Amino acid sequence: MLRLYVEVAILAARRAARSWLAAVSIPVYIFAVMMVAQVVAPLGMIGGIIVGVTASACLGGYLSLLASGVAGSQIKLADLKHGLRAVWDVMSVAFAVWILSILVKVLVGMAGPNGRAVAGIFSLAVAIFLNVVPELIYNSRNRSFALLKESASWIVEHPFAWFPPNLVFVFVFVFLWAVGALSFSSPGELLVTLSALGSGGILGIVVGAPKWEAPLLVVLLHYVMVYRGLLFQELSSGSNRMRAFRRSMSA
């Protein structure tokens, strides 16, 4: 598997560089969300809905560009506009997660003194079993709850191959936090942000960094997302290498 990780890392570097427009779109979309948030702030709940729709459109736009980058396609300026059409794909998943969060809040209230433990278990489950939601949004035909179920099933099938390189990326960001490069109040807050890397975590990490460091973080985050996309496709391909790895894990 180490050879696979190295090969994917090299290919990810090439395709991340080739899809530099997708990386550029990250600060553009973040700026758009922040501007909309300021304009609609006085509107209360309606303003929150508008910000949510805007964020979903921007995230859908980035994931659309990311899909082209992972595939090795040349990204054009026109793709920045076309990618916004994925807003409904992102919103369907966000709605499903929102429904689950409401149910969890009810359980937390019913659990009394154990409420924090229930909330912690839910956050951990989301970080683990919904980890490939960003990749599925631009690879799968499923949406909403069906996509969440597909993510959990995929993780159950590929846990030992998927998480090692992703944990390496987590350690990199924790190190950046430890040396003061990321402004989070605690490692827990950082880890929660990283668990939502493809569904809002990018916004939290970039906005929470010093201005001089933001461009470097954008490059790093885009590389991570390209790497994840390539690794996801490799693990899902059913190649001879993956079949051999599964046999070795079950032996």
What does this structure look like?
The chain contains 13 helices and no strands. The chain is mainly α and 251 residues long. It has one domain. The two termini are 16 Å apart. The relative contact order is 0.13.
Q: Structural class per helix/strand content? A: mainly alpha
Radius of gyration using CA atoms only: 18 Å
Distance between the termini: 16 Å
The general outline is: globular
What is the mean pLDDT?
A: 84
Low-confidence stretches: none
Number of strands: 0
Question: What string gives the helices and strands in order?
Answer: HHHHHHHHHHHHH
What profile does the largest beta sheet have?
Answer: none
Percentage of residues in DSSP E strands:
under 5%
| Number of continuous helical runs | 13
- Domains counted in the coordinates: how many? 1
The percentage helix is over 70%
Topology (elements, then pairings):
Elements lengths: L1 H17 L1 H21 L4 H27 L6 H5 L4 H25 L3 H15 L3 H5 L6 H14 L1 H20 L8 H9 L1 H11 L6 H23 L3 H11 L1
Give a quick summary of the entry.
This protein has 251 residues and is mainly alpha-helical.
Can you give keywords for this protein?
251 residues, mainly alpha, 13 helices, 0% strand
